[in-house]
Amino acid sequence: MLVAATSPVASARVVAWVWTQARRLRTSLHVDGIDAIDAIDPSPAVAARHRATVAGACKLTGATCLVRSALLQRWDADHGVNRPLVVGVARDPEAGVSAHAWLEGERHADFEELLRRPPPKVAGHSGAGNALT
Questions:
Q1: What global pTM score does this model have?
Q2: What DSSP character marks residue 69?
Q3: Which residue in 67, 69, 74, 130 has a CA-CA distance of 20 to 30 Å to 86?
C-alpha cells in the first residue's frame, strides 16, 4: 500500500527507515567495507516526493556523506531512478587528503573519482511507477 506524500505517517516511516538503516550501515561499513551498502533494506512504500525527508533525516542522524549517498541511492532506485554512487579524494596542500561520496549528478568539489558503484537492482518496489510518486 502506498501512503500519500502529505501523510505524517509516511514521513514517520521514512525517518524510521533512515534512522535504522543509517545506524546499521555505519556499523556494517567498519566490518564489511563498501559492500555493506548492498544490505540496505528496501525503502518504505511511500511517494517518491519524500526524498527530501530522506535527505533531512540523514542530516539529523549525523550521517556521513557515504551513508547519506548510499541511502539516497537506494531510495532513488526503489523509485525508478538509477544513479551511481561515486567516491573520490582531493588533496589540499595544507589540509592533506580528504574523501567524499556523492551520487552522480550532484555538485561536489574537485574530487578525483576512485570508485563508482552502480545502483542496486530492485525488484518491483511498490512506490515505483505509482501515480503519487
A1: 0.86
A2: H
A3: 130
